[in-house]
Each structure stands twice: as structure tokens, then as C-alpha cells.
Specification:
Length: about 210
């Protein structure tokens, strides 16, 4: 009789344990489904490139004389902008938004490269770009070179660029497109942002893509 009761007790304990494990598994499954539903319902703030297109690879020198190659950035997101240091409005506004976006990301900013490519190689020396970008955020990478080096990069990313003469040889302005390109961790163009995009919108899209991996 004692053995029968002990067996029944063990059987009841195992049954309770099985139910508890089953409950935990069910809870995890529900959480996964809920997370997938949330992620699939996400609406990007930027303009979506669908299907994603491989970002053109290029290699340029940064403001510190180091080589920056786009293909080496796999595993990180890249925000890419084309402008120039003498720009009166569009470029400083966009770089300020880069700074605000990095601040909003906090520790997640380590997974993102913020990149500025000049459209004015005649005036944008490494030293000038370095001093200019430091005003906004020293973490922003400034890329330059000769016009021959930069021309294929501008073309690959569909950058519009037109020099407008000024009152002197060095007082010209450069009309240029003002898109910000977001390249994902797999090296694909995923989103573009028009001028005036809010830092909160870029940060939210970045968080989503980092979460997705």
C-alpha cells in the first residue's frame, strides 16, 4: 500500500511539473508570435527601397587619412550623406540631425556609422573636414579625395552636383541632392530620407533594423 501511494505521489508531481513546463513553453511561444507580429507591422519612417539593393562599394580616405571601404562596414548600419563644408543650410542641418540621432540611440550608436562624403573636393581638405565635423560630432566620418576618385561614388549613389559660380574663384556654391541613405548590416540600401527628416524618425528605423539583425 505504501509503495502504491508513493508511486501515485510521484506521478502527481511529474504531472504538475509537466504542466508547469508546458505553461512556460506556451508563454514563450505566445511572446515570440507577439514579437513577430509587432516587427512585421512596423512602418518605416524613411522611403523604403524594395527589394533592398546592394550598396555600391567604394574606398576613400577619411579626415584622419585612414581608408574607409564600404564593404568593410558589414555588421554595422551606415547613414550616408553627400554635402560640403561651405554649405550654408542643408548640410549643417543634416549633420545636426546626425548628432541628435546618435544621442537618441545611446549605446546602440556603436552599431552605426555616420558618414559624410564631400561634393566639393577642391575646398574640402581632410583638415578642413575634420575641424568642421568636430563641431557636430567627432564620430562622423568625413570622406574626400580628388574629383576623379569621387565622381564614380557620386554616380553610383545618384548624387546630383552642380557648381554655381560666385563673386570670386573660391566663393562658389555647390547645388547638390540632399538624400540620406541608410545601408543595413548586410550591405544593402534599405531606406532614403529626404532633407528635413527628424532625428527621432531615423533613430526609430535604426533601432528596428538593429533589432532585426
Amino acid at each position: 500500500m505504501f509503495h502504491v501511494l508513493r508511486f501515485a505521489f510521484k506521478e502527481a508531481s511529474l504531472s504538475k511539473r509537466t504542466l508547469a513546463i508546458g505553461s512556460i513553453v506556451a508563454t514563450i511561444a505566445i511572446a515570440i508570435v507577439a514579437a513577430e507580429t509587432f516587427l512585421s507591422a512596423y512602418k518605416f519612417r524613411g522611403s523604403v527601397i524594395d527589394p533592398p539593393a546592394p550598396a555600391a562599394n567604394f574606398s576613400l580616405k577619411d579626415q584622419n587619412g585612414q581608408t574607409f571601404q564600404m564593404s568593410d562596414q558589414r555588421g554595422k548600419l551606415v547613414l550616408l550623406f553627400f554635402g560640403y563644408t561651405s554649405c550654408p543650410d542643408v548640410c549643417p542641418t543634416t549633420l545636426a540631425q546626425f548628432k541628435q540621432t546618435r544621442a537618441r540611440l545611446g549605446a546602440l550608436a556603436d552599431g552605426v556609422r555616420f558618414v559624410f562624403v564631400t561634393v566639393d573636393p577642391q575646398r574640402d581638405t581632410p583638415d578642413k573636414m575634420g575641424k568642421y565635423l568636430n563641431v557636430f560630432d567627432p564620430a562622423i566620418v568625413g570622406l574626400g579625395g580628388s574629383e576623379a576618385n569621387l565622381e564614380p561614388v557620386w554616380k553610383a549613389y545618384g548624387v546630383y552636383r552642380q557648381v554655381q559660380p560666385g563673386s570670386s574663384a573660391d566663393a562658389y556654391t555647390v547645388d547638390h541632392s540632399a538624400w540620406v541613405y541608410l545601408i543595413d548590416a548586410q550591405g544593402n540600401l534599405r531606406l532614403t530620407y529626404a532633407f528635413g527628416v527628424q532625428a527621432d524618425d531615423m533613430a526609430q528605423d535604426i533601432r528596428y533594423l538593429l533589432r532585426k539583425g
